[in-house]
Specification:
The complex is a heterodimer of chains A (115) and B (190). With 115 residues, chain A is mainly alpha-helical. The chains are: A mainly alpha (115), B mainly alpha (190). At the A-B interface, helix 1, helix 3, helix 4 and helix 5 of A face helix 2, helix 4, helix 5 and helix 6 of B.
């Protein structure tokens, strides 16, 4: 038996996993939002223009600022909902890592050029 | 020995913040890997725990400062548009790279990817830091959380490494230059 997972051990968990799961999933959501916004800004002129928050930096300023806001809002909501709950963190981690993997692909220019 | 203000900023961004983050990240990866794979609980003193928290927070600061200086200080110089009729593109790195088929890929693939992928590093490491600080010793009871944290830390390292690689190569072919010249050491004529 793995002592790390032994619920009867003296080190039994006092914190639920909800808070950690919220942080993990929101990081995946934030990264994916950044990738989708970057891809949309690259393909659609109207989106690109609307993402110019700071002219010298161009659309990158809007892409990153909006993605960070989405990440923090998602984190806040998930933390509020899951803080004291035990959730299926295995599935949540897979989803979060899947979103992060998609984000890496969606920002890679040869993949973006396929759309 | 002198350096331009823009070159100095690029040096601070890449070597100061970026490279230091990569070094710190490699150390953190070892510690997180030990935490994740160790069968027996890793005992640490309160002092060691405080140091780990400080180390992780410092990594977060480095990662965020690296991307923010990159996006808001260096990148505007990189993507600046030259006035019509400009033939010397040496202070317009993006246009210099795009002016030759031999170098255009450093912009169209290198910079286009780097400017976005770099942001996954601070987002990921902020999450890793939050989870490690919030759970502390209790993390030993959450194996799946530990595994996810390790995966995100690896991706943070890879993202920062990719951005750093392309940044170094782009600066080799089209260095960010210009601005006031700063004299570092007065040389002697031979």
């Amino acid at each position: 038996m793995n002592p790390l997972n032994n619920a009867a051990s003296p080190d039994a968990s006092v914190l639920t996993n909800g808070s950690g799961a919220a942080a993990i999933l929101s990081a995946g959501i934030g990264s994916f939002a950044l990738a989708v916004l970057a891809c949309a800004g690259d393909k659609l002129e109207a989106v690109k223009n609307s993402l110019i928050f700071y002219k010298p930096t161009g659309p990158l300023s809007g892409v990153t600022t909006t993605a960070i806001l989405i990440w923090l809002v998602a984190w806040g909501i998930l933390e509020w909902r899951w803080r004291n709950r035990t959730v299926g963190v295995g599935l949540i981690s897979v989803i979060a890592l899947g979103l992060l993997g998609l984000s890496l692909m969606l920002t890679f220019p040869p993949v973006v050029d396929l759309f | 020995m002198e350096i331009t203000a823009r070159a100095l900023w690029t040096l601070v961004h890449g070597l100061g913040f970026g490279a230091l983050y990569l070094l710190a990240c490699s150390g953190a990866l070892v510690q997180i890997y030990r935490l994740t794979t160790s069968a027996a609980p890793l005992e640490s003193t309160p002092g060691q725990e405080r140091f780990l928290k400080f180390y992780l927070c410092a990594m977060c600061v480095l990662a965020w400062v690296a991307v923010l200086t990159g996006a808001y200080v260096i990148y505007p110089w990189y993507r600046a548009t030259p006035p019509p009729g400009t033939t010397d593109l040496s202070i317009f790195p993006q246009r210099l790279l795009m002016s030759s088929p031999a170098t255009v890929g450093w912009h169209s693939l290198g910079m286009e990817w780097k400017e976005h992928v770099a942001w996954f590093a601070p987002i990921s490491i902020t999450m890793v830091t939050f989870v490690l600080i919030r759970y502390g010793r209790d993390l030993r009871n959450h194996q799946q959380l530990r595994s996810a944290v390790l995966s995100f830390a690896v991706i943070s390292f890879v993202s920062a490494g990719s951005a750093g690689f392309f940044g170094a190569m782009i600066n080799k072919y089209a260095p960010v230059q210009g601005g006031p010249t700063i004299q570092l050491i007065q040389g002697e004529e031979k």
